[in-house]
TrEMBL record, chain A:
Membrane topology reported for the UniProt record: Multi-pass membrane protein
Protein name in the entry: Cbb3-type cytochrome c oxidase subunit I
PANTHER family: CYTOCHROME C OXIDASE SUBUNIT 1, NITRIC OXIDE REDUCTASE SUBUNIT B
Membrane spanning residue stretches: 12-36, 56-73, 85-108, 134-151, 163-181, 193-220, 232-255, 261-288, 300-321, 341-361, 382-407, 427-448
Family classification: Belongs to the heme-copper respiratory oxidase family.
Domain Cytochrome oxidase subunit I profile: 1-399
Native source species: Marinobacter daepoensis
Keywords: Electron transport, Heme, Iron, Membrane, Metal-binding, Respiratory chain, Transmembrane, Transmembrane helix, Transport
The organism's place on the tree of life at top rank: Bacteria
TrEMBL record, chain B:
Keyword terms, alphabetized: Heme, Iron, Metal-binding
Domain Cytochrome c: 48-136
InterPro entries: Cyt_c-like_dom, Cyt_c-like_dom_sf
Protein name as it appears in the record: Cytochrome c
């Protein structure tokens, strides 16, 4: 850690991980409700648990991105953060707003929550992933704008690197697209169209810039490969992400009202969306093969490789499986969608945040060359347990989805099973998914355990060949 | 990557490519929203009652369990075509069905998935029914494949 103010990333990372744990607990509740329908009813109905599960994910990833930004922007810019105090204030504001919102979901009936937060004045609630009360949405916008101010002032006064420029571009895009969450017309078809401006253009657009920038930063640090080479890769990857992903939004416009040309545009461009993720895999492995140093933080290296592979599988391969319009006609809104969503979010965004945490937290704790060997081994156990569990969650949901499509979607009206009759037939897959989810939780516990293992920190690294200025 | 492929070339592909596709996306959005959608989304029948129904749909977080036009949660049945499935495409039949259904919730059958009772008035249930009926008439390229959603 070269600048004292980078340390403000720490509370962001810690809080992100706490929310992550909450997300998994509610994931288990949901998984059980799929097979034991009245579990926790009426205390925590499915819709409440799901809202908590998905909103916790979104909020903790935002905390993770902010932590990553506070950590890496000053170091890239070679200057202290513009205002560590502002970063701390924003942390408490965002943490308080996030916690209150989640508690509101859990302890106040949703219609009452809409009422007391005066949703009628500017109705924005009750849409998937955008369930937050309007006041929370405004709070998120304010926090993000102040955060961007702090980060931009820092970046502007220092060295302008490609990593910083791409990261900040992604964050500005995130902020601008968030504004569409405030647009909720009475026409459902229009509402849905612009809803995707937040949801798709975040996760298949600007978030890929954020992911690419964090990955590039970590690879520069871990491999010592020349910055010029890494930055060139980064530009090509994000170019592919936006060239495919923007028109790729069309794969969401197939069945919600927009005209038929989207069937073609959405199919063709989204079929290309795996490309940037594939390039990230090649990028990470090539840079690691060409490394000029053996960084002793092996765990961080594992996360960096893992995130690219899992993002490619989850977002790329599982996305492609059901993205072509003739296939999507049958799979749209089935458990196939859920399978894809789980692995894509875990691979791309959960794992990139865990990558930067794995790299940066030991440094902030005074272990510049990574945690002790024992701690790293335990962390890697956590990596494998969580990652393999997620593979199984995805496979079981895919099995459930294929059966669902076969029973409920493919037969003609009159012969097809009703939704609930179909759900009963695939219960075994839901049970297996629940078991895989329990293993994921175990992996998370092991991962958390790795933070509490003491022992001698890793010794200084072994440098391969001449070190670069950035090493 | 070959040495001839420089960083500034990569940057230009990124800037040029994304600018081009942002503009194309905006053009397509204008075409979709201004030209195509008015003929497809049944907006001439978008009454105040339908809009009230949409807000009820939102304020009770229906999308937290159900999907509508395939989007939402996958815990409970698709509702964009429930007007056809349960109402036989008849407004009055559907209204009576909705009232009976909403008031019968929750079933409290042990082990089965439960839908809460949202304590809606008859007028509110009619608003919700109007919203679902209107939604069923959006031209969505013939999705879903069959009546089961």
């Amino acid at each position: 850690m070269k600048y004292e103010s980078q340390r403000v990333a720490m509370p962001y990372f810690i809080f992100a991980l706490i929310l992550f744990a909450g997300q998994i607990v509610f994931g288990l509740i949901l998984g059980l409700q799929y097979v034991v329908g009245d579990f926790l009813f009426p205390e925590i109905p499915f819709n409440v648990a799901r809202m908590v599960h998905t909103n916790l994910l979104i909020v903790w990833l935002l905390f993770g991105f902010m932590g990553a930004t506070y950590y890496l922007v000053p170091e890239e810019a070679q200057t202290e953060l513009h205002s560590p105090l502002l970063a701390w204030i924003l942390f408490w504001v965002f943490a308080a707003a996030g916690t209150l919102t989640i508690l509101g979901y859990l302890f106040v009936d949703y219609a009452t929550l809409a009422d007391i937060t005066m949703n009628k004045l500017l109705p924005t609630m009750g849409r998937e992933f955008l369930e937050q009360p309007t006041i929370t949405k405004i709070g998120i916008a304010v926090v993000v704008v102040a955060f961007l101010y702090n980060i931009s002032m820092t970046a502007l006064k220092g060295r302008k690197t490609v990593v910083n420029i791409v990261l900040i571009t992604g964050l500005v895009g995130l902020a601008v697209l968030w504004l569409f969450s405030f647009y909720n017309p009475g026409n459902l078809a229009t509402d849905k169209y612009f809803w995707w401006f937040v949801v798709h253009l975040w996760v298949e657009g600007v978030w890929e810039l954020i992911m690419g920038a964090i990955l590039a930063y970590v690879l520069i640090k871990l491999t010592g490969v020349d910055r010029e080479v890494i930055e060139k890769w980064l530009y090509v990857i994000i170019a592919m992400a936006l060239i495919t992903g923007i028109i790729g939004t069309g794969h969401h416009f197939f069945w919600i009202g927009p005209p038929e040309y989207w069937l073609w545009l959405g199919s063709v461009f989204s079929a290309l969306e795996p490309l940037p993720f594939f390039m990230m895999v090649v990028f990470a492995f090539t840079m690691i093969n060409r490394r000029r140093r053996n960084h002793p933080n092996k765990a961080a290296m594992l996360w960096a490789m893992g995130t690219t592979v899992m993002a490619f599988l989850g977002a790329g391969v599982w996305g492609f499986l059901h993205t072509l319009a003739p296939v999507n006609y049958y799979t749209h809104g089935s458990q196939i969608t859920a399978a894809h969503g789980h692995m894509a979010f875990y691979g791309a965004y959960v794992m990139i945040v865990l990558t930067i945490i794995s790299y940066a937290v030991p440094i902030m704790r005074g272990r510049p060359y990574g945690n002790s060997n024992t701690a790293q081994v335990v962390e890697m156990w956590g990596f494998w347990l969580m990652t393999i569990s997620m593979v199984f969650i995805t496979l079981f949901l895919t099995g459930a989805g294929v059966l669902q499509v076969w029973l409920q979607r493919i037969p003609e009206s009159g012969e097809a099973l009703s939704f609930m009759a179909g759900q009963d037939q695939i219960a075994l897959f839901y049970w297996m998914r629940f078991v895989a989810g329990a293993f994921f939780m175990a992996g998370l516990v092991v991962y958390f355990g790795s933070f509490f293992i003491k022992g001698q920190a890793s010794p200084a690294e072994e440098v391969r060949g001449p070190a670069t200025a950035d090493a | 990557m070959a040495e001839r492929f420089t960083k500034s070339m990569a940057r230009n592909i990124y800037l040029g490519g994304s600018a081009f596709f942002v503009l194309l996306f905006l053009a397509l959005t204008f075409d979709t929203q201004l030209r195509a959608m008015p003929e497809r989304d049944n907006r001439e029948e978008l009454t105040d009652q339908v809009v009230r129904g949409k807000h009820l749909w939102e304020e009770n977080n229906c999308v937290g369990c159900h999907s509508i036009m395939g989007e939402g949660a996958y815990f409970a049945p698709e509702l964009a075509n429930v007007f056809d499935r349960r109402g036989g495409s008849d407004t009055e039949v559907f209204k009576s069905y909705m009232k009976a259904w909403m008031n019968a919730m929750p079933t409290n059958i042990p082990g089965r998935r439960q839908m809460p009772n949202f304590n809606l008035t008859d007028a509110e249930i009619e608003d919700l029914a109007a919203f679902l009926e209107w939604t069923s008439k959006i031209d969505d390229n013939d999705w879903p494949p069959n009546i089961e959603g």
